[in-house]
Amino acid sequence: MPLAPIVTIPTPRLELVPLAAEHLDDLMAVNGDDRVTRFLPYDTWAARQDAEAWFERIQGLTEAGATRQLVLQRRSDARVVGTLLLFKFDEASQRLEVGYALAHDCWGQGLMREAVQAACAHAFGALGLRRLEAEVNPANLASCRLLQALGFQLEGTLRQRWTAKGHSYDTHLFGLLLQDWQLLHPDAAPVENALRHPS
To answer: 0.90 cut: is pTM over it?
Structure first.
């Protein structure tokens, strides 16, 4: 069973919606900035062709069923200011991984925390998952702080886990369990796990 489609995830200042071709112009400004792509596995976009190649790759992953690429659309002006990726869906383990990027001029406003928190609520609710993971370069202190503020636990460091942009680097592995989320959000309505197979 593929990961369920996502129509929209609303937050007070954003709407998280599936990636579409019309979002690429705004995303050029996001991924065309070295400060944003510093810790991403792909190079800074230098031309529209880079955006289109990325879009085609994401479309293929989405069609395969284990990935949902969302964009962060700001309510105030409909500008797309970032991305949030739900990927590596493992149906048997009811687990997926989270990744994200935000336009530099939006840093420090709490927008990504708002987006990731809403995505976690959706994952543990409507998607019926039991575990979320995130791999982060230890040098990306802002991302590490964000995840820990949302309840993710640092579960270990994977040495020289990835090689990208000409060098190998470690990653911190963060994990968040359904029961962790429920302790942090005791008022959240319980949701029957939609992915659990009947016994």
So the answer is: yes
